[in-house]
Amino acid sequence: MKTSWRNFPVWILKILGLCCLAGLPLVIENQYVLHVLINIFLVTLPAVGLRLILITGNMSFGQVAFVAIGAYTSTLLVVKLGLSTWVALPMAGFVSAVFGAAIGWPALRIRGTYFAILTLCMGQAVIKYIENLPALTGGSDGIFGIPRPGAIEILGHPIIVFTSAKENYYYLALALFLFSMLLMSRIERSRLGRIFHALGQHDSLAKSVGIPALRYKVLAFSIGCFLSGLGGAFYAHYFRGVHPENFTVWDSIYYVVYTIVGGVGSIWGPFLGASAMLGFFEVSRSLTKLQPILYAVVFIVVILFLPEGLVSIKDRLLHAAKRLAPIGGGGKNDNG
Amino acid sequence: MAEARDTPRTEKMFFSVDQITKRFGGLVANEEISFFIERGEILGIIGHNGAGKTTLFNIITGVIRPDSGRVVLEGEDITGKATAKIASKGVVRTFQASTLFAHMSALDNVITAHYLANKVPFWKYLVQTGKVKQRETLIRKRTEELLDFFGLSAQRHELASSLPFGHQRALSICIALAAEPKLLLLDEPVTGMNESETEEMMAHIRRIRDGGITIAIIEHDMRALMGLSDRVVALNAGRKIAEGLPDEIRVNEEVIESYLGREEDY
Q1: Are B56 and B17 spatial neighbours (Cβ–Cβ below 8 Å)?
Q2: Does the beta carbon of B14 lie under 8 angstroms from any beta carbon of chain A?
Q3: What is the pLDDT of residue A28?
Q4: Greatest distance between any 2 Cα atoms in chain B
Q5: Distance, in angstroms, between B87 CA and closest chain A CA?
Q6: How much is the pTM?
Q7: Tens digits of per-residue pLDDT, A191-232?
């Protein structure tokens, strides 16, 4: 039922899209454009995690804390312990996830606005704490000069070498992004996804049929923090340094903006939102001082006219097409 | 029946609440309420608004903790345990009004509610081991049967929020049944329904009981409740004022005074 021929065009589209994303560095020589694209993937990771948290009915304004925890963890593992980037990267994700679970376990007992405010404060507290641990984190000096990731070898031949050129970082960012999408689609199609959606839609009903709500909210929060941590670790290796000022409350807020603008209705929402907003940011670069205002205007316009985000455009078009189509077009779609 | 009433604390007792008291500030919602439910019966709980009926359900299902008293299921004290834990032990309730997973299809609502039937560590959901998959197939089949039983098959792909009221009610009972309860608590299952819908729902409730599930019902619709219940407990202002067969309750003076007599005011 799931993999029927009806999905065939969707698969073609997905493969085409993937080829386009993979082929971009071959066409785009401009390093700056590549940097923007890498940046989009980079901010998409925490936003994808945030979407999962939103689904379970919680808003977090503190995700930057877990980005920072991931960035610092990966940095310290590489710089102080001499571990390979390829070991440090996933470990950074796990450390963020553990922090997420440890903070989420008590914090997710409160809900709604209270939880959102709590995450806002918690996010700032974590960054301040990092800044006040100079022995470990370099304090307000940060840590710089992280070695580049080791080459990826096949049978002893280095095939992907990380240099100052951005292509290979692009592929690494793309790989992390695709991993997050794969994880999300896996979750959405499984009972786990149903449980998360159920918690967001009516958590006391979910409890009444035996779902331990708190446990699964913590799990969703922790997975969200895992992706934030991965994003943070990539950030550290891409810029080859971490500094407390790189992690501000604005980052947390932008993750929220990307997710809402893109829409939580689909796993692709955060990516769409981040692409649209960062794309808009680049296009409007000449209007430096007006940019924050324009950003806010775009955000408000989307909330007013597309409350379910950019991902809902597809449904709206289909809906409009159905209404305009001659009689008989409507009935067919209902038999799915 | 009278003998059973005198010995409500035997080990063989299926379910009992014992001296439950709950105050909200100065308001006494439940005051030393005790009753028992026998396996396989339908117990009706009557009382007008504010009599403490829903508070009682909330206490039984662990949503709120009583100030004192015990809730005992099959000899085990379940007082104040987490709602999910109590559900896993077999006590599941429905809610007043239409409480559903609004943005899911009817089918997905019931599949999701089958949590206890496929409860594994979370990563097993992701790697979809053979056993998990097998159980999901079984759940899917059971869900279709449940929807069919309540006449919801044709609407199974519709969003729960877009279903008509009667169907939403039926769906909310499907959801509760998905947790495979031993004791099903129904909070006003026919309130707001017309006569034919009420008849239909009553027939469903009887068939659920015949399937081996014990039922307790809170209901305003006196006629439906009296017709359905094997025994009735009457509450007034947080206290139990009577308990007995429907015919006994109907002629109980205190009940007539506090409840039935008032009905003419409506």
Answers
A1: yes
A2: no
A3: 84
A4: 63
A5: 5
A6: 0.90
A7: 999 999 999 999 999 999 999 999 999 999 999 999 999 999
Residue with the bigger pLDDT between B209 and B13: it is B209
**Does the distance separating the beta carbons of B87 and A192 come in below 8 Å?**
no
Q: What are the tokens at A299?
A: 């955000």
ipTM of the complex: 0.89
Tell me the C-alpha to C-alpha distance, in Å, between residue A334 and each of A212, B54, B154.
Answer: 35, 39, 11
CB contact under 8 A, B125 and A198: no
Helix (H, G, I), strand (E, B) or coil at B34: strand
Question: CA-to-CA distance for A229 and B84, rounded, in angstroms?
Answer: 31
* Residues 6 or more apart whose Cβ sits within 8 Å of residue A269: A51, A259, A262, A263, A309, A310, A311
Summarize pLDDT for B58-102 with one digit per residue, the tens. 999 999 999 999 999 999 999 989 999 999 999 999 998 779 999
Residue B153's pLDDT band (cuts 50, 70, 90): very high
Residue A335, pLDDT above cutoff 80:
no
Report the sign of the C-alpha dihedral through residues A77, A78, A82, A83, in that order: positive
B92 touches chain A (CB under 8 A): yes
Contacts 24+ apart (CB under 8 A), A297-303: A298/A261, A299/A257, A299/A260, A299/A261, A302/A260, A302/A261, A303/A260
- CB contacts < 8 A, A to B, total 87
Nearest CA of chain B to the CA of A214: how many Å? 10
Instruction: At A179, list the tokens.
Output: 């991993």
H/E element, B100: none
Structure tokens at A61: 């304004």
List of chain A residues whose C-beta atoms are within 8 Å of the C-beta of residue B122? 192, 216, 219
Tally of CA atoms within 13 A in the half-sphere of B77 that contains its CB: 7
Q: Which amino acid is at B230?
A: D
Of B126 and A336, more confident:
B126
Q: In one letter, which amino acid is A1?
A: M
